[in-house]
Amino acid sequence: MLSLTFPPINELIRWRDVFPGFNKVGLIAVIAAVLGIIIFMTAGQKDPLQAPTGVRNLAESGVTFIENDIVMQTMGKDGLPWTPFLLSIFIFVYLCNVPGIIPFFQMPATARMAIPLFLALTVWIVYNVVGFKHNGLSYIGGMIWPKGVPVFMRPLVGVIEFLSNIILRPFSLAVRLFANMLAGHMLLITFAFLTNALVFAETKKIALIPLSILPFFMLVFLTAFEVLVGVLQAYIFTILTAVYIDAARHPVH
Amino acid sequence: MEAIARLIADTNPVQTPSEAKAANAAIGAGFAYGLAAIGPGVGIGYVVGKAIEAMARQPEAAGMVRTTMFLGIAFTEALALIGFVVFILLGL
Q1: What confidence tens digit (pLDDT) does each residue in A45-54 have?
Q2: What is the pLDDT of residue A1?
Q3: Per-residue pLDDT reduced to its tens digit, A115-159
Q4: Cα B4 vs. chain centroid, distance in angstroms?
Q5: What does residue A49 show for φ and ψ, rounded to 5 degrees?
Q6: Which domain holds residue A134?
Q7: Distance (Å, rounded) from C-alpha B29 to C-alpha B37?
Q8: Do A182 and B88 touch (CB under 8 A)?
Q9: Looking at the 3D structure of chain A, how many domains does it have?
Q10: Does A177 reside within a domain?
Q11: Residue A3 included in any domain
Q12: Which site in A147, A163, B18, B68 is 20 to 30 Å from A3, CA atoms measured?
């Protein structure tokens, strides 16, 4: 009979150390950060008066995307100073997601909890500081005792608002990115493993090799899907950051 | 087939408490993800369906609708993803 033993999850996402205390996931994260910095530094040193070419084209399309599709849609015109922050988050998350489908890397750095968690905590600190800066102590007051809600509903809505702002938002922000990338990684592994198992089966080899085309096609399709997921998750992470910062600046009255 | 037959034939396949715990965890993990996927599945379908309806009615507002749609999907999807994380924590 055909039997499959799926490797335990620790084997799939825990890598041997490159040197003590530093494994492949850390390497990918460092590469992502350095690559993003290099792209935007080289783009920034080009003459802004000439028509953009090469790297500058890429960087400018990124900036335009963040400005038009994220900042203007969620924060409006006075949110434009936030473009650098959102752009660096977008580029870093995207460059961490993409190695999930690049051969020889094949591990999205965001599929380990550390990076999404750290990014979500950064965003959490940023939007809370922005909230206190713009509204003072009424930021927390408006959260606990929201105006514009009938008085008898205020304790309930206040508790919900407070929990959602302080605990649920960073939690869901981190878990969303992490779980999406991990799920994609596991799907790719499952179908790669299935193809491998069918090709190298010990019994009924002749019958099973043509069957392996099916999981292989699924693997190709899912790899293409992961390209989309990588961009989409970076986009969603950035747009939620923008929405949270905007909500902290102008709390609903 | 053999494994299933052996499983049916064996009246007491669970040997030790730790094995019973592992078996229950595996079953619970399967249910956790399956049940967590139902609500968000319906919800995401509803969100996207309504967004397509809005885009078809007012193509000039498509950009804004798409942004809001992704936000809605992100919030709805979170529940399914928490289910997925629980599935991994329990089962693997």
Answers
A1: 888 888 888 8
A2: 40
A3: 999 999 999 999 999 999 998 888 888 888 888 788 888 888 888
A4: 27
A5: -85, -20
A6: 9-249
A7: 12
A8: yes
A9: 1
A10: yes
A11: no
A12: B18
